[in-house]
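We were asked to recover a plausible sequence for a given structure. The inputs and outputs are reproduced exactly as logged, with field labels preserved.

PROBLEM: sequence recovery
POSITIONS: 383
GIVEN STRUCTURE:
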C-alpha cells in the first residue's frame, strides 16, 4: 500500500515538473506609432513543456491584415506601413499538450491634431447679433481645445466635448469683432483654426497681425534643402520670426524676410515649424509640418535557418524607412536561386522543397525612392 502511495506521489511530482502548461510574455505590452511606420511585438515562452505552438489573433476577432507578418515560429508579429485599422489589441496564444495561455499587446496610432472651424470666415454680423463658432478637432492622443481672441492669451468660455468646442460671440460694437482662434494641442503637435468676425457696415477698430504659410505640410528627402514661406498682414506691419516646436531651429538654417530655408535636412529635422507675426497689437502664429523621408533599413526575422531536404523555406525581409519599399532576394556568390523559388512584393522568399544545394547565404535588398539597404541570412540544409 505504501509502495502504491509513493508511486502516486512520484507520478504527481513528475507530472508537475515535466507537464507544465505554457507561460508567455509579450514585449512591448503597448506601442504607439505614427501612420506608415513599422512595429513588432515579440511573444516569448518563459516556461512550460515543449513543444509549444504560438499563434496570434486580434482581440476583436478581425483578420490580422495583409500588412501583418509573422515569424517562422510565430513568436514575432510585425506590422509594416501601419494603417488606422491596425489599431487595437493583439493576442498571443501559446498551446502545448498540458494547456493554453494567452497574453495581449496593444497598438495605438498617433495622429497630430487637426482643426476645422465652422462657419468659415470672414463673417459679417449686425451690431447686437450673436453667432456660434464651432471647432471640431481630431488627433491621437486626444488634443486639448481652447478658444482665444487674436491679440489676447485669455481663454474664452466655450462649451466643450471630447472633440468639439462651441463659442458664442455677441457683437455689440467694432471692439467685439476681430479674429477668433481655436487651438488644439497634444504632445504630437499643435493646430489652429481661425475665423474673422466683422461688424456689418463698419470697419474694425484695430488690425491685429495675421500670419499664414504657403504650405502647411512639406515632405523632403535627407540631404535636400527646404524653404518655408510665411506671409503676415496687419497694421502696424508685423515682424516675422521662425521657431521649431520643442526644439531649436536646425543649425543649417537661413531666414530671409518671411522665408525659412533649411539646408541638408536629416530625419531629426522633421517636426512642426512656427511662423510668428508680431506687432504692438499682439501676435499670430502659423504652422508648417515637415516630414523628412529616409532610406530603408533592412532586417530579417531570422539570421540563420537550419532545415532538412524536402522542408519548406520561408524567409521574411522587413524594412524601416519611407514607403513604398521594394524587395529583391538573391544568393551571395555564384550560386543561382532554386528553380522553385518564389518571391513576393512584401519581401517573402519561399522555396517549397529544399535541396542540399540550397544551402548558402541569401541577400535581401530593400529599395525606396531615397536609397537602398541590404541584409544577409544564412540557410543550412542538412540530410
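RECOVERED SEQUENCE:
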Amino acid at each position: 500500500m505504501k509502495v502504491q502511495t509513493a508511486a502516486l506521489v512520484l507520478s504527481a511530482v513528475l507530472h508537475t515538473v515535466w507537464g507544465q502548461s505554457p507561460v508567455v510574455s509579450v514585449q512591448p505590452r503597448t506601442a504607439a506609432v505614427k501612420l506608415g511606420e513599422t512595429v513588432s511585438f515579440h511573444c516569448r515562452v518563459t516556461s512550460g513543456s515543449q513543444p509549444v505552438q504560438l499563434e496570434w489573433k486580434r482581440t476583436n476577432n478581425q483578420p490580422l491584415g495583409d500588412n501583418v507578418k509573422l515569424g517562422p515560429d510565430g513568436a514575432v508579429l510585425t506590422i509594416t506601413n501601419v494603417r488606422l485599422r491596425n489599431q487595437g489589441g493583439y493576442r498571443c496564444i501559446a498551446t502545448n499538450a498540458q494547456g493554453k495561455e494567452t497574453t495581449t499587446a496593444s497598438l495605438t496610432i498617433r495622429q497630430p491634431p487637426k482643426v476645422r472651424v465652422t462657419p468659415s470666415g470672414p463673417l459679417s454680423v449686425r451690431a447686437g447679433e450673436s453667432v456660434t463658432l464651432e471647432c471640431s478637432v481630431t488627433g491621437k492622443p486626444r488634443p486639448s481645445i481652447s478658444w482665444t481672441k487674436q491679440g489676447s492669451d485669455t481663454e474664452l468660455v466655450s462649451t466643450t466635448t471630447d472633440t468639439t468646442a462651441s463659442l458664442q460671440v455677441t457683437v455689440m460694437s467694432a471692439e467685439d469683432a476681430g479674429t477668433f482662434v481655436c487651438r488644439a494641442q497634444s504632445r504630437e503637435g499643435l493646430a489652429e483654426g481661425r475665423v474673422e468676425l466683422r461688424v456689418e457696415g463698419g470697419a474694425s477698430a484695430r488690425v491685429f497681425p495675421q500670419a499664414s504659410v504657403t504650405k502647411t505640410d512639406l515632405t523632403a528627402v535627407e540631404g535636400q534643402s527646404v524653404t518655408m514661406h510665411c506671409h503676415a498682414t496687419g497694421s502696424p506691419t508685423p515682424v516675422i520670426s521662425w521657431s521649431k516646436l520643442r526644439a531649436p531651429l536646425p543649425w543649417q538654417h537661413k531666414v530671409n524676410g518671411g522665408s525659412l530655408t533649411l539646408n541638408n535636412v536629416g530625419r531629426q529635422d522633421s517636426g512642426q515649424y512656427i511662423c510668428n507675426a508680431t506687432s504692438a497689437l499682439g501676435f499670430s502664429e502659423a504652422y508648417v509640418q515637415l516630414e523628412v523621408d529616409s532610406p530603408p533599413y533592412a532586417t530579417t526575422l531570422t539570421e540563420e535557418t537550419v532545415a532538412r531536404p524536402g522542408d519548406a523555406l520561408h524567409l521574411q525581409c522587413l524594412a524601416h524607412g519611407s514607403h513604398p519599399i521594394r524587395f529583391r532576394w538573391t544568393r551571395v556568390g555564384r550560386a543561382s536561386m532554386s528553380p522553385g523559388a518564389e518571391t513576393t512584393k512584401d519581401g517573402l522568399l519561399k522555396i517549397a522543397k529544399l535541396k542540399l544545394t540550397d544551402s548558402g547565404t541569401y541577400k535581401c535588398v530593400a529599395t525606396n525612392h531615397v536609397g537602398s539597404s541590404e541584409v544577409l541570412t544564412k540557410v543550412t540544409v542538412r540530410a
